[in-house]
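Pipeline run #58 for the internal structure catalog. This entry was flagged by the ingest filter as a single-chain record with no existing model, so it goes straight to prediction. Upstream metadata was stripped on purpose; only the residue string is passed forward. Reviewer on rotation: M.T. Logging verbosity set to normal.
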Amino acid sequence: MKDFFWGTATSSFQIEGDITNDFTEWEELGKFKEDGSNPLYGNGSAHWSNWKEDFDLLKKLNQNSYRFSIEWARVEVVKGTYSRAAVNQYREMIDYLHELDIEPFLTLHHFSHPKWFHELTPWHKRESINSFFEFAKIIIDEFSDKINYWISFNEPVAWALAAYGEAKFPPGFNDLKLMMDAIKNMMEAHILVYDYLKVKNPNSKLGIAKHFIIFKEARNWLLDKKITSRIDIFFNKMLINSFEQNRLIYWFPTLLKYDSPIQLDNKIDFWGINYYYKIYAKFKFSLKNPIFLFPKEPATDMGWEIYPKGLKKIIKFVAATGKDILITENGIATNDEALRKKFIKKHLKIVNKMRAKYKVRGYFYWSLLDNYEWLKGKSKHFGLIKVDYDNNFKRIIKSSAFYYAKLIKKYSTL
């Protein structure tokens, strides 16, 4: 086992291209225009045909690990029918990572679904659990001997909020009760995956990549403080608490009251921390939506406030679970390479200090490549590698990539 995992993270749909799924279907239907934007997928970053070149860059940049996902829609285009060609290519990719001595971290669910999923077995219905588990079994059967680190779900709360609470992602519901049902069913599926994986490979580790945000009250006012606390519990604490309490519980005055048993039994080996920013919360007089969220000092192209100290606070909170910790995503959307270097430097300084005190086992910068950033399309650039979309998806290594490689070398020798 490596002393510490240094790498980058990606998701299949955001970079692979050559895919048809629920997001491309929404694009075709013009659904994204309801959000005031119209992101175009346009073959992603063409990783599906350029993966070997991309993996060589990982090695060149001193990375000893790589977090990626399997595209469910590529493997199971039709429910119950699995693509041997797709599975074989993922096998080639995983084998090549091993050749390069790069530890693969595999995510099973990173936001996207086959086109049939929301129609036949959407996450708010119990049938979804088995649909996902059948897919997961195929992947585990194929790769349990090749993958030691697995992530069942990436940001399940954030995804459910976008898909069921805000109608921004497919299937496009605006129902908080269904949102909570969806989160519960995803966690039920996590349990099945955990138990099955442990039978296939008892030494493997399974975790969840959990999105964390630092929420701060906008004013020194009781209602701002109360509302900030309720948001923090929902977004940052609810899921972790459910693993220890065997209940998924949340309430928000006038909006939601949910309490359901779920036999999780703390079946998780590590928590992944996805951390990007701080945001301010203000109470507003509205029964339908009493929350107003805004940044005070946006310093990224996403309009997010850079707040490295927040990572320290989150690591301390997650460390209380006793589980291993991986920083599964941390990055910045910018075209300013000096700013990206500063971002990496400050966050890595905190990671290096915290790994001496807590069970922090790795860090993955988001992202290896410029990619399709969901509602923002390709207009936001998180990558260490520039993708020239107008020039046959040519890869251009940014100066921040070499800077990160230099810091990896520095912190690996301490």
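catalog note: The first strand starts at residue 5 and ends at 9.
catalog note: The chain has a mean pLDDT of 97.
status: ready for reviewer M.T.
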